[in-house]
Amino acid sequence: MREDDLIAEQIVQTAQPNDLALLVGRDRKTFIVRLKPGSQLHTHYGVLAHDDLLASPWGTQVFTHMEHPFLLLQPSTDDLVRDLKRTTQIVYPKDAGYILMKMRIAPGCRVVEAGTGSGGLTLVFAQAVSPTGSVISYEVRPEMQRLARSNLEQLGLDEFVEFKLRDIAEGFDEHDADALFLDVPTPWDYLAQAHAALAGGGFFGCILPTTNQVSRLIGATRSAA
Ligand SMILES: C[S@@+](CC[C@H](N)C(=O)[O-])C[C@H]1O[C@@H](n2cnc3c(N)ncnc32)[C@H](O)[C@@H]1O
Fold first, then answer.
1. Domain boundary among 73, 95, 118
2. What is the pLDDT at residue 225?
3. CATH code where residue 84 lies
């Protein structure tokens, strides 16, 4: 490896301005922050100056002004979902990972979802389809859309998401989605709309908390076929 390649690799492996950082305390309490020169993180064990974190290698210990150690890491998608501000039930990482695999969601895909809720699944979809794909996320409640938009903006993922405020009973604007996912209480009411939004051979998925609801959905998909 050439010397300038080595230097470039070192730069990538240290915390840089605008990076998201996960700080893990000895008691496992965690904080996720976007690193900004001049900013500070106030913790229960003292203050961490972002300037002291910038240019530190990932995986090293950093210390508050009271000499308490924190581990400096890059947050995983799981960390981001768990840290998300939420006022609704969200889709948890274990289910989200399975959804990505089952629905073949990968970079470049066009994914439609409803409802946006707090944006937990939107975040996972946005990361999975970036940098060339897109997520179109429908929500009927303005306050939920606001929260999800702010969550995605803070993570720098909003550029991959188009938020639409609408009751999906009125239908989707899209007709070429590679995948369509419903996290709403009665998905069987929207099968015709979902079918119209999908490209031929596109994937359809739902998440439901009870077996009664799953049976009802399967019955409705059979009747619709
Ligand atoms: C459980 S939350 C979705 C959580 C989201 N998947 C997440 O991981 O954060 C369900 C959302 O669906 C929205 N919703 C319910 N019925 C809807 C409809 N007919 N059209 C659009 N949104 C709807 C609700 O307002 C609620 O915000």
1. 73
2. 79
3. 3.40.50.150
